[in-house]
Amino acid sequence: MGDEPAEYRGKSLILANKYRSLTAQCLLRADFLKPVSHTIETLTLHLHGEFARNRDAEVGVWVLVGIIVRLAMRMGYHRDSKLFPNVTPFQGEMRRRLWTFVRQSDLLFSFQLGLPSMIRLGDCDTALPGNYYDDDLFEEIKALPPSRPITEPTPMSYMIAKASLSFCFGKVVESLHAVRSCTYEDIMQLDQNLREARAELPPHLRLKSVEDSALDPGAIIMQRFFLAILYHKGQCVLHRKFLARARENTKYAHSRRTCVDSSMELLNHQATLHYESRPGHRLHNVRVLLSSLTSHDFLLAAMIISLDLWYGAEAEQVVGGNGRVNSTDIYTWGLERREEMIRTLEVSNEIWKETRDQSMESYKASEILTIIITKMKDRVRPGDGPGGSRQAREPFPFPSMSNGNTNSPYPNPAGPMEDKPEHSAAMTLGMLSSGGLTGSTAPTANMFGNGYPNPGTAGEMQNLPAYSMEGSANGIPSVPSPFSFMTGGAQGGDISNNIDW
């Protein structure tokens, strides 16, 4: 990581792997199938260790979530503790926190693999945890104090806000996997629920630009991005099946615009997070919070933009020599944004290329997007540029990240990237390997690596483009929490930070 104490420098990964291994041994020795105290807590620590060790999705992590869900339900976590007088107020609040994390994990990991979640909406009635500081609670407490306002930053603010959005997202996914299709009125109601959940976010967790967050901790900035990403992912999933229908029926125009706009926002967030995670930049110390879940969301956005561009290309037919377009697309605003959409895909593709040595999914995404972008450019009609040809443009908007493009205004100080022969062979062999909870030495070795180009100069920084952000709000950052490793806080994803130095 580069920020460990001197006596542990270079040993954080070894210690993290040892901690993960010892956690698994403790679970086996204690027979984790027995409903005893702290079993679910220990399993969630094990889940966190398995998830954070790899940059790619693993079926084994999803299977582990299923085990945790079933054991938690067996121990009654899915029912609110107020129904059980033998559960103390302190225990009840801890159970609410843990069940909220388990339910979110079930939703997000199941969706990552394209499968329905294991917890149905009607199966649980556990309330959300209260907005408390940890000092507000102690084991001998006789009754819980009134919950603090959600606008007051506490260690639980992010978990509560993310849970509200996640459960709305869960309704969207449930409608997606339903055997019977829901009506468009139901779709619009789910859309409204997502928008209301975002509007209820506390001010200190609403997204604003990195420049306006200069005094905020990096973990808080990442929390804001994660909430924005979750909202836009929900909109993409909800409306993407109407991309084609909107071209023939104005009834679905809102769905197409919302889906494409959210996809563009997701890819803009990808570019911003990738740039700010480089050495010397604002989010470098918390870059490990970017996981396979966020990568999956960015891949979803790239797929939607590619799909809409493909629909537009298929709909266009030039008639005669007058250049008239004969198309059933009665909602043609996408034609005006095509250049912007292609350029956004090019930026995303450059990011996948830079991280292809760290993740198999990044490698696959870079190969696929390269083919898609090439085909999209080939289908552009003549006359897009002077002389009837498209003008070459630098795809990557950030300095020192052009990946060897000699015509780039931002040259790469590391030189052009070369395709080494052994690189392709290694990736091919990697594709043949199976997932699960087995070891993955290549991704693990590069997971916390500094595989980023050197940051640009101050002069280059002035040429950065302005990226759209959903809104801004002033707020106070949340304080650190022992539960932050579950909720995306300062220790989320960074196993080495969880070690008591």
Low-confidence stretches: 318-328, 382-396, 398-501
Give helix and strand order, one letter per element, not per position: HHHHHHHHHEEHHHHHHH
Helix content: 40-55%
End-to-end separation:
14 Å
Percent of residues in β-strands: under 5%
For the largest sheet, list the strands in their spatial order.
1-2
Shape designation:
globular
Cα gyration radius (Å): 24 Å
- Overall mean pLDDT: 77
Number of helices: 16
How many individual β-strands?
2
Biggest pleated sheet: 2 strands, antiparallel
Q: Strand pairing plus helix content: what structural class? A: mainly alpha
General description of the model:
This protein is mainly alpha-helical and 501 residues long. It is built from 16 helices and two strands. It has helices at 12-29, 39-52, 59-74, 89-112, 157-177, 184-199, 218-239, 253-276, 292-315, 333-336, 338-354, 360-378, 421-432, 441-447, 458-461, 484-487; strands at residues 318-319, 324-325. A two-stranded antiparallel ribbon has the order 1-2. Helix 5 (157-177) packs antiparallel against helix 6 (184-199), helix 5 (157-177) packs parallel to helix 7 and helix 11 (338-354) runs antiparallel to helix 12 (360-378). It starts with 11 loop residues before the first helix and ends in a 14-residue tail after the last helix.
